Amino acid sequence: MTMGNAMYVLVAGQWRQSRATDFFQAENPATGEFLPPRFPISPREEALEALRAGAEAAEALRGVDSETIARFLETFAARIEERAESLVEAAHNETALPKTPRLKDVELPRTTDQLRQAARVARDGSWQRPVRHEARKIYSIYAPLGGPVIVMGPNNFPFAYNSAAGGDFAAAIVARNPIIAKANSSHPFTTQMFADLAFAASQACGLPPATIQLLYRTSRDLGFEMVGHPLVGATAFTGSRDAGLQLKAAADRAGKPIYLEMSSINPVVLLEGALRERGEAIAAEFCASCTAGVGQFCTSPGLVILPAGELGDRFVEAARQKLEAAPPGVLLGGGVRERLVHAVAKLRENGAEILCGGGALPGPAAQFANTLLTVSAAGFLRHPEELQTEAFGPVSLLVRCDGTDEIAKVLRHIAGNLTGTIYSSAAGADDAAYATLEPQLRARVGRLVNDKMPTGVAVSPAMNHGGPFPATGHPGFTAVGLPASVQRFTALQCYDNVPEHRLPRELRAEKN
Hints:
By secondary structure, this protein is an alpha/beta fold.
């Protein structure tokens, strides 16, 4: 297609003009101005056509060999690299994220790397986990879902989590599921470019025409209908808790799988020995982590639990000074800034005190002052739920505690999170405190981190980018880390007393 023709959707194997009568525009967060292209809000008949085409593609994809899937993922990665400059430009305009190093040197290489890792997993078949119980002649294997996967990506990672190119996309494709990408409204043109490249790569590799489809936006009610539709295989969603839970309710009513990555404040525990040894350095690490990506990472340290007293005082003052000195960044949009204002107000209403920042900055750019708040452990325990409100931006709450026992009391009230961190003495002075606190934190987080800030998620086979509710909808799955992330988009199939020659090739004793 001619890129930039925003009136076109990718449905049933072709780019064609949408039937929409309603439209939206993306916003340039740095200027507050709407960007020129208008994108369609797809009507019900258009979405249902995508579902029907996706169901047909799912049936055809079951017979596609793993080498073809791997070749598609590698071809797509190569085409992304060929269009790197224009992708970076588009994403920068729509999100105000820095072209370099963030988009060009960090996120885009991560995106192509995870596509290539997915290709290796498709090729080696490790995601299928075949099991043969010879004594009872019972065999099992993981297989495709049999329906399209709807991917709803977030606003904060226009490449690595993009609905038409990111980790959920790659994992679902590995398991031979077609994709219906729902573009995030903050970067629709970037998503269109990815979808165009993915579609071209899929056709070059001979995949079914509707393997990749793209809708930009639907009404809320239509979104609920889609995630619960009988033809859907599963949905992957990354975004706010409120939207995620509404989608989950709709999918649950229909008995359809939905995998959610929602809110996380990522508690960081600072122990006395660590502060005594390197408190100033930890304050610098904290400031860098809190402001990375303008605080719009799902692993940003939104809650820091630390000792009261002189050591804690020194850290607090160092952190405050560093945050005040750090230049404010541009948020992903005016809506993000508005929600941040409400989140900080809620923290203050429930006893948190402002140490620095605390409000939106004037001007057309979507900016919010780097913000540090504090509350005592007793104050936190009076309102633990409200004081765990996610402030999606450069904001963190410090909880001051009198000793290990009080830290443990606070940890017992921490909700599920993606990560939890403990900083401890390198010389072993905090070992006893660590042994007391680690079990409390371990039970509440997907990834336990020691002696470094949690920001960033490595694409590693051992990575768990998941965690207990409300960080995600299920503690047993990860959105990052192959082949584990593929399991979300599979069905476990069992064969009982089925002759060898009738088993799937990948399940046979001798694969031929």
